[in-house]
TrEMBL record:
InterPro entries: A-crystallin/Hsp20_dom, CS_dom, HSP20-like_chaperone. Pfam families: HSP20 (PF00011). It comes from Curvibacter microcysteis. CDD domains: ACD_sHsps_p23-like. This is Hsp20/alpha crystallin family protein. Residues 34-130 form the SHSP domain. Transmembrane segments: none annotated.
Amino acid sequence: MIFAPVIRHSAYLPGLRITDRQLERFLGQTLQQAPARRGEQPARFEQTEQDFTLELDVPGLSREQLQVELGSNTVRIDSVADAPRRYQAAYELPQDLDPSTSSARLENGVLTLKLGKKAPVTLHTRLNID
């Protein structure tokens, strides 16, 4: 039989917690810087009371080679199978989208999506007091 010493002393716990925090900080910084390091531009995002505006760089792709799909609060952008380069992205937005007021425009390799917000439905009804 082999016995290994087990250290059960609270003096060693703060060192482990510091190491965990350092690892979390390192991973957070690495993941935030990953798109810039790979040469990709992150999406530019703006929000107004009526809509969301999302700008994406998609050089080398034409209107026919891109597909934009709207979900309730998601937007998904894909290139078609025979496109010269592969592009795939999906974004989740904080509010439901209205497809009737949304539009997409592609100019000079920049895809601009104007995504209309759906008006929130209120379940509250005011009653008149007699």
